[in-house]
Amino acid sequence: MEHADFNQGLLEFLNQSPTPWHAVATMKAKLDEAGFQALDEREDWSLAANSGYYVIRNGSSLVAFRTGTGDPAAQGVRMVGAHTDSPCLKVKPNPVLRRKGYFQLGVEVYGGALLNPWFDRDLSLAGRVTLQEASGQVRDVLVNFRRPVAFIPSLAIHLDREANSNRSVNPQTDLPPVLMQAPEGDATRFEDLLERQVTEETGVCPRRILGYELSLYDTQKAGFVGLHGEFIASARMDNLLSCYIGLQSLIHTSGEQPALLVCNDHEEVGSMSAEGAQGPFLSAVLDRWLGAARGRALARSMMISADNAHGVHPNYLDRHDENHGPILNRGPVIKVNHNQRYATNSRSAALYRLISDELGLPHQTFVVRSDMACGSTIGPLTAANLGVTTLDIGVPQFGMHSIRELIGAEDGHTLFRVLVEFLQRPVVL
C-alpha cells in the first residue's frame, strides 16, 4: 500500500468514524471487502485454515484474525491491539435544559478530555440509538447528524477579564451546548429530534426511543497541515489512527501466519467492561479459535499494543526527559516504563527494532520524566490477561486528548510497513 493511498484512506476513515460504533462499522465494511467472514458469538463456529474472520461485540469492539496455513500451536499468533474510543462529551440520559429561550443539552465528560478546545467549535452528534419499531421489534441503529447542530460558546473576555490567566472549566455548568432557540412553552423532547434523525438516515419510523449513547464531535474534517503538508490534523487520532494502521496491516499481510487484530472500546475510562481490554472478549475469541492448543500457541505469540505517543512539544521542552523526546515524522515510538504502565520489555522491543532496521525505517523511544506520572494503554492489561509477550508502541502526536490532534504525515505509514512484516513473520523470542 503506497504512502499516498495509505494517508488518503486514513483521512476517510477518520471522517467516517465519529464514534466507536461508526469506527467498527467502517472496519467491518473494509474486512468484508477484503474477504473476511463475520462470526456470531451466539452461534457455533467452523473455522478453516488460511481464512479470515472477525467478531464484533457491543458494536464498538472488534477482533479480526487470519487462521494461517499452519498450526497456531507451533507458529504462535502475531497480534496487534488498539482502542476505538476517544475522550469526548456524551449526552446525558435526561439532557434537555431550557434557559432564556435556548435549547441546550447536559453532557458528561468521557475520559481525560482537554476541555478548553471544545469551546467555539461547530459540533455535531453521532452514536447508537436503541429503539422499538412499529412492529414491536427492538433494534439498534447508528445515527450521525453530520452537519453542525451544536455550539459551546465561550464567555466573552469583557465578562471575564482573567480568562487568559485563570480560567477553569466546570463540566457541569460550562459545557452544555446550545442546539437551538426554543420559544416559551416549547415542548420539544430530545427524543423527538432523534426520531426525526433516525427516520431521515435509515427510513425507520420508531414507535419510541428506548435509549441512546451519543457523543458530540467536531465537524471539521481531517486534513493535511503545514507549509509542505507534513502533518495531519484530526479529531480522535488517539486512537483511531492505530485502529486504521492495524486494520490495513492485517488486510495486507500474506495470511500464512496466524495473525490477529483487537480493537477494544473503553480504554479511555479504564477498559473495565465486557468489550474492554480488562474484559473477556479477546480471551473468549482465542479460546474458541485455539481450543486446547491455546496455552502452547500463546507461549509462542506476541502482542504489539499500538497507541499514540507524546511528541516533544517545541513550546514545552521541559515536559520531556531530555534523552527521550520523540519528534514527529521521525518514526514510531517504542514506549518504555519499568513500573509496567507500558508492557514493553527488552525482548519485545528488540523484535520491533530488528524488523524496522531491516526495512530501513526509523524508530524512537519514549520514557516519561521520572518526576511525572505515566499514562497507560491496553498493552499491560492484555499482557496480564493472556500471559503474552507485549510491546507498547505508537505514532508521536501533539495535543493528545484535544478535540483536534496532530501527527506527522510519515509516521503512520512507517508503522504500517513494520506491522505488516511483523504479522507475517514467525516470532522467535
From TrEMBL:
Keywords, alphabetical: Aminopeptidase, Hydrolase, Metal-binding, Metalloprotease, Protease, Zinc
Record bears the keyword Kinase: no
InterPro entries cross-referenced by the UniProt entry: Peptidase_M18 (IPR001948), Peptidase_M18_dom2 (IPR023358)
Required co-factors: Zn(2+)
Source superkingdom: Bacteria
GO molecular function: aminopeptidase activity; metallopeptidase activity; zinc ion binding
Enzyme class: hydrolase
Listed NCBIfam families: PRK02813.1 (NF002759)
Similarity-based family: Belongs to the peptidase M18 family.
The protein's name in its UniProt record: M18 family aminopeptidase
Organism, scientific name: Marinobacter lutaoensis
